[in-house]
Amino acid sequence: MRISQLRYFVTVAQLENMSQAAELLHLSQSSLSKNISTLEEELGMQLFQRSGRRVILNAAGERFLEYSTMALRELEYAVDDMQLLSSGRESRIRIGTAGFSDRLGECLAEFRKLEPQAEFELTGNIETQEHLDINQFDMLIYPDTHKYEKYQGMLLYEERYYLAVPANHHLSESTVAGTKLFEDENVIFLRSGRSGEEYPYHICSVLALRFPSVCFADTRELHCKMIAGGLGVGFVPRTSAYLYQKEEIRLIPILDQRFSRRMMICFRREKYLSELASRFRDFVLEYFSVEEKPGETG
pTM for the whole thing? Predict the structure, then answer.
């Protein structure tokens, strides 16, 4: 499979017309059709439904479009990075987080005052990624759970969970939630991959809570929509609460202190950090008053 085939596929998918796509790509229509057919043969399935001059994505095509778009975007990032590196203008700082806190935003703003050339690239949904690579980031903020045990980070802060319920739910007027209050509710958990359940899932297992039904969502956005739609209640860490502040949802503090998580911070190894990222690392540790210990890096 070639990168060019992915680009051809994405162009055809967007235009839904083979001749228009061929013209845009400066290819003959027969050459483009052959490339798409070769791609489908390699995947072992059709990606389009043909209807006269129109070519429309089928279910398999819709899914493959997501992967193709992601792959091409990552390639663009890589090329951009290499160009920045070769020009000696490495000003981008990559940050991966599980949620986004006001204090982190304030920290970035303060650093930007000192280093106006700094560019931040944030990924705020690392908890939904099944396989996370520290080498993708200069700084990583992650929950202290089994999933991330390979990282040797430092404690940044602790955050509590809210119980998120639909606005018309019988618990919506509650000021606090105890475990007895929600143990008979349908629950929606966040999960990455087949076994990446969020921390509250394991807390509920330890507490032997039994729910009438359990659903899973693989993104915060979907998790939020399912709760707003009335499919069940869910658990939301404080740094992700802003995503759920909608008319259709109420957030209720949970009394049980076990529904909290330790948030850790780690950085790329010093030798892989740019000069700017290295200064950023020192600034962040001082800003959050994090005591660095020997050997505690990503």
Answer: 0.66
